[in-house]
């Protein structure tokens, strides 16, 4: 499984933007970049995913580097409810690719009031 | 928004006993998954299920584990003879198509005594 590297933890203040980085230097051309988050005592929750172009949805934006070796999840205005562990996951769809998502340790985001 | 439902939320059992964890995936989803998370550790993939058969399983998913979709709505995980190390939060997930976003349930906390 292609690996990702994320900081163990980050802090932000409420109502400020948050940029969560992820490195995936071994990404292959058919790997999708997924972001999930896990709030305390809950199951993982889908945030966003993309392949090459930047993506926006109501929860966040995903900025993907031109060489695709890194990406950044952007929360435009952090709220206390955004405090969670954020996982950056590569999903391979090419030949031999797996349909499962492999979770790493993620980044624990703390949001200060 | 539709959601994946898991029951029970907590299950306590004695070592060596059989347990069945139940999940109701989102209607019209086709891909089903079980993950588990031991306290303080990563979310780990156990098994994926499509078209009434296992499509992929991890090393954790040994002969003590089985999955079933008995009636077209429920999706169950059975552990035949539980061990202490099976104590974990078990998450069910479903997806409408391969590579689609996964919808996770809120989990069943299994405690093996």
Which terms summarize this structure?
heterodimer; A: 113 residues; mainly beta; five-stranded mixed sheet; four-stranded antiparallel sheet; 46% strand; globular; B: 113 residues; seven-stranded mixed sheet; 0% helix
Residue runs with pLDDT of under 50 for 5 or more positions of chain A = none
Please write the string of helix (H) and strand (E) elements of chain B.
EEEEEEEEEEE
End-to-end C-alpha gap of chain B: 36 Å
Shape of chain A: globular
Considering residues with a beta carbon less than 8 A from a beta carbon on another chain, report the largest interface and each chain's count: A-B, 21 and 23 residues
In DSSP terms (H or I, runs of 4 or more residues), the helix count of chain B works out at 0
* SS content category of chain A: mainly beta
Number of helices of chain A: 0
Helix percent of chain A reads: under 10%
How many strands, what sense, and barrel or not for the largest sheet of chain B?
A: 7 strands, mixed
> What is the rounded Rg of chain B?
13 Å
Helix content of chain B: under 10%
| Range of strand content of chain B | over 45%
In whole angstroms, the N-to-C terminal distance of chain A is 38 Å
Task: Walk me through this protein's architecture.
- The complex is a heterodimer of chains A (113) and B (113).
- Chain A has 113 residues and is mainly beta.
- Chain A contains no helices and 9 strands.
- A 5-stranded mixed β-sheet of chain A has the order 1-9-8-3-4, with no helix packed on it. In chain A, strands 2-7-6-5 form a 4-stranded antiparallel β-sheet, with no helix packed on it.
- The radius of gyration of chain A is 14 Å and the shape is globular.
- The N and C termini of chain A lie far apart (38 Å).
- Chain B is an all-beta fold and 113 residues long.
- Chain B has strands spanning 5-7, 10-13, 19-24, 31-37, 43-50, 53-57, 65-68, 75-79, 88-95, 103-104, 108-112.
- In chain B, strand 9 (88-95) and strand 10 form a beta hairpin.
- Chain B is globular and about 35 Å long.
- Chain B starts with a strand and ends with a strand.
- The model of chain B has no long low-confidence stretch (mean pLDDT 95).
- Chain A binds chain B through residues 32, 34, 36, 38, 42-46, 49, 87, 91, 93, 98-105, and chain B through 4, 31, 33, 35, 42-45, 48, 55-56, 58, 91, 93, 98-99, 101-107.
């Amino acid at each position: 499984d292609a690996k990702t590297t994320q900081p163990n933890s980050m802090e932000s203040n409420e109502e400020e933007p948050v940029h969560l980085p992820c490195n995936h230097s071994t990404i292959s051309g058919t790997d999708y970049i997924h972001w999930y988050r896990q709030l305390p005592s809950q199951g993982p929750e889908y945030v966003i995913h993309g392949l090459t172009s930047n993506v926006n949805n109501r929860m966040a934006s995903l900025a993907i580097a031109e060489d695709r070796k890194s990406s950044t999840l952007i929360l435009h205005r952090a709220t206390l409810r955004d405090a969670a562990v954020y996982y950056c996951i590569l999903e391979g769809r090419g030949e031999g690719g797996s349909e499962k998502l492999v979770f790493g340790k993620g980044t624990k985001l703390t949001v200060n009031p | 928004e539709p959601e994946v439902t898991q029951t029970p939320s907590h299950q306590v059992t004695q070592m060596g006993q059989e347990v069945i964890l139940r999940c109701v995936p989102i209607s019209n989803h086709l891909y089903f998954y079980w993950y588990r998370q031991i306290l303080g550790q990563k979310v780990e993939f156990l098994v994926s299920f499509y078209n009434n058969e296992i499509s992929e399983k991890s090393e954790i998913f040994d002969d003590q584990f089985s999955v079933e979709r008995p009636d077209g709505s429920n999706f169950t995980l059975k552990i035949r003879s539980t061990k202490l190390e099976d104590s974990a939060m078990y998450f069910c997930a479903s997806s409408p198509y391969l590579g689609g976003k996964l919808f996770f349930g809120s989990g069943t906390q299994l405690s093996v005594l």
